[in-house]
Automatic annotation (TrEMBL):
Belongs to the adenylate kinase family. Catalyzes the reversible transfer of the terminal phosphate group between ATP and AMP. Plays an important role in cellular energy homeostasis and in adenine nucleotide metabolism. This is Adenylate kinase. The keyword Zinc applies. The lineage of its organism: Bacteria, Bacillati, Actinomycetota, Actinomycetes, Streptosporangiales. ATP binds at residues 10-15, 127, 198. It comes from Streptosporangium algeriense.
């Protein structure tokens, strides 16, 4: 199965990507992993990407696309894959479609993890990080009333990334980019939405049920 996973920050996309890919016995291909592999492997594309990153610039689309193409050409991706983090927008989705056409294949499904904005804010803004051991606690899920780490006694703090303002901004950026992507795939008739609220295992279960009509 060839599948793309989309979902807002805080939807648990990375975790679900791993579980779903492993259940389907296909490689999980995330742009983060591809970047790291190219940079640490010292490939031409990796060197190019690193130049941009060292300057603090965004890596251009062409470089990312070339890396994705290389990765999808590898032998383990021939019978299927789960893409996480790509495509991010409609132009990238169109490029991916053409790329797969050249390979003589097509996407089977785009799975969208659906979580309400308020739930994302609750999940992320409740996180407290230990300044000493780095462990993350949650004010609701771990019923954390004080700001002391139960593991090491260190002081807990809220990372800037976990501040409500930052989260709401990331959600806005996500909606702007992803709403058109989701409509694109809805028009292609390969979009399936899955409720991503609740425990991780339940979400995986729902995702597998949603995918079952498309597996052999
Ligand atoms: Zn600690």
């Amino acid at each position: 199965m060839r599948l793309v996973l989309v979902g807002p920050p805080g939807a648990g996309k990375g975790t679900q990507a791993q579980y779903i890919a492993s259940n389907l016995s296909i490689p999980k291909i995330s742009t983060g992993d591809i970047f790291r592999a190219n940079v640490s492997g010292g490939t031409e594309l990796g060197k190019l990407a690193k130049e941009y990153m060292d300057r603090g610039d965004l890596v251009p689309d062409e470089v990312t696309i070339a890396m994705v193409r290389d990765r999808l050409s590898e032998s383990d991706a021939q019978d299927g894959f789960l893409l996480d983090g790509f495509p991010r927008n409609v132009p990238q989705a169109e490029i991916l479609k053409k790329m797969l056409e050249e390979f003589g294949v097509a996407l089977d499904i785009v799975l969208e993890l659906v979580v309400d904005d308020e739930e994302v804010v609750r999940r992320l803004a409740g996180r407290r990080t230990c300044s000493q051991c780095g462990r993350i606690w949650h004010v609701d899920f771990d019923d954390k009333k004080d700001d002391i780490c139960d593991a090491c006694g260190g002081r807990l703090y809220q990372r800037d990334d976990d501040k409500e303002e930052t989260i709401r901004h990331r959600l806005e950026v996500y909606q702007e980019q992803t709403a058109p992507l989701v409509s694109f795939y809805a028009q292609e008739r390969i979009l399936v939405g899955v409720d991503a609220t609740g425990p991780v295992e339940e979400v995986t279960q729902r995702a597998m049920e949603a995918l079952s009509p498309y597996t052999d």
